[in-house]
Amino acid sequence: MNVENKPMEMGMNQAVHVEFGPREPAVAGSFYLAHGEKLRRQLRVWLASDQQTIPAIAVMSPHAGYVYSGATAASVFRRIQVPEHVMVLGPNHTGAGPDVSVRSSGEWITPVGDAPCDEALCRAILREAPMARADQLAHRREHSIEVQLPFLLERNPRVRIAPVILGRLDEPRIRELGVALARAIRSMGEPVLMVISSDMNHYEKADTALRKDDLALERFLALDPAGLLEVTQREQISMCGVIPAAVALHAALSLGASQAELINHTHSGMVNGDLSHVVGYAAARVW
């Protein structure tokens, strides 16, 4: 049976190796440039900095088309140290696959190079988090991880990624998964960066969007995952990566995080001039 279509049996040892092939780009040419050298030149302009890089336990970066959010994403990536091991947590926009999907092997193909899956880190996630499944269906058309990769590769060409797509999880499972991811990270014995892939509020007037974004960011910067979940639900804030953000905050707290900073906060209307229907973007660091 083709591995791509072979289901993972319930109760199966999730740390067992599953062989997936290369993951081809899904949004090259639409969300970002498909021409490798042109994309590389664009990234180098955005990432150029004379500031000293600083460590991070986690960062949050947007995942819209680069014309709208690329400069915002670059504002955090140019400031931080990108180690060889990176866990990227993204939301499930397509609805395919399990609630916690780990693409545990294979290379992610991009116009600026390939990012291999960090098989050791993926095995650690599958071992420590029983709810996680080795899966590629959730990743096949999902853009939230893919758009982070050119930035990571430009900052560290040796980067290896543990790609994790998250569906609907309730608060107890969010907390459980975050603590499990912290255990997986500790087991590596080397630096691991978590990248939260998320846009902020969607498709409201700019002043409304900024107000809602600020409410969510206040809880994120306070390292308050429960508060972040509560305020986004209460205020109907359509932050698509709220679950990855809450999971990563639980993991970061378990790893000793004590501070966070907002690096940049923008919205789509700043690019296209339409203030009636904007999407918010934020870049932040947790350490």
* Euclidean distance between termini CA atoms: 44 Å
CATH homologous superfamily assignment: LigB-like
Strand content: 15-25%
Remind me, CATH topology? Answer: Protocatechuate 4,5-dioxygenase, Chain B
- In CATH, what is the class? Alpha Beta
DSSP helix fraction:
25-40%
- What would the principal axes of the Cα set say about the shape? globular
Please, how many domains? 1
Total DSSP helices: 9
The assigned CATH architecture is 3-Layer(aba) Sandwich
Number of strands: 11
Which stretches are low in confidence, meaning pLDDT under 50 for 5 or more residues running?
A: 1-14
Structure description:
With 287 residues, the chain is an alpha/beta fold. It has a single domain, classed as Protocatechuate 4,5-dioxygenase, Chain B. Helices cover 36% and strands 20% of the residues. The chain has helices spanning 36-47, 66-77, 119-128, 149-155, 171-188, 206-221, 225-234, 242-254, 269-272; strands at residues 58-61, 85-91, 100-102, 107-110, 113-116, 133-134, 160-166, 192-197, 202-204, 260-267, 278-286. The radius of gyration is 18 Å and the shape is globular. It starts with 35 loop residues before the first helix and ends with a strand. Residues 1-14 have low confidence and may be disordered.
